Amino acid sequence: MNRPIDNQHVLDINALPSPRAIKTKLPITDEAAALVVETREAIRRILHGQDRDRLLVIVGPCSIHDPEAAYEYAAKLKPVAETLRDRLLIVMRTYFEKPRTTVGWKGLINDPHLDGTYDIAAGMELARTILLKINQSGMPCATELLDPISPQYIADLISWSAIGARTTESQTHRELASGVSMPVGFKNGTEGSLQVAVNAMTSARAPHHFVGINAEGQSSIIRTAGNPDRHIVLRGGGGKTNYEAEHVAKAEAAVAGEGIARSIMIDCSHDNSSKDHKRQSLVARDVLRQFREGRHSIMGLMLESNLNPGKQSWKQGVTLAHGVSITDACLGWDETAALLNELADSIAAKPA
Q1: Is residue 1 part of a domain?
Q2: pLDDT tens readout for residues 204-238
Q3: Which of 90, 137, 166, 169 is deepest in the core (most CB within 10 A)?
Q4: Hey, is 209 helix, strand or coil?
């Protein structure tokens, strides 16, 4: 019998450096660790109702593809976050893995050189380098957990994470969320299903046993205690929006038994903006109106923003414009800064 039984369609298998090896090479600093701990606790206080006056805002590029542009964005965001901190808890989007409906660039970890070489080892190290530098600058970071192995390499530098619309229904990602150390937001399904996100919240609260890796990169049995810090992210679906008051009320009722005082975040992009980045501001203003009028279950919102507005198409070998998204279209920085200040002013004017 000449035909192999295993790996018939596998071209190559290369070992990845262990999480311990990369963390030893790029150790978290005391300053970065303190910021992560402080931000995670601040988010928990918002979630569980000890902090009822502030909103969590996850804002930044749809995906990181250029480290220098990411550092420049963080440098612009930091003073705004500091100025508005009594009304908004601002955390920067630092997304390194992108789920694709079919095929396409899957993010900086998967293809860091944007040249089809798929140097994942370099991508993992680069992602950790970016997170270290941004955290050390004083700006906390958020990301989407996509590959179940990646968190072993970078999760200590993440203050908030999302489980995306394509993976909220995945048992693997629910198990993963049950063990991570930061608060997690579950997006509703791509077709708009709210129940999959509710089910995910319930599942992630429970203990789980599953196969993963340890710090040495060895296959291991992971046993988790369950994550008490979970919420829903409404992002629209199936071409329809779900940020309006009736949808927020429905989501609030659906998770009433989860014991989360402020359980709903609104993603102002994706189907909620009809995939028009310019409409994110309209969505954000409506969410703030609801919050001001007493919808206290709203804990935050998400904005896709970059140095410059819109998006560009990435093609191998073509020079890219600086600070423009190569995935979803984003708000530009000037509009973002103005919107964040407007939102903070609106919160300051909220009736008691």
Answers
A1: no
A2: 999 999 999 999 999 999 999 999 999 999 999 99
A3: 90
A4: strand
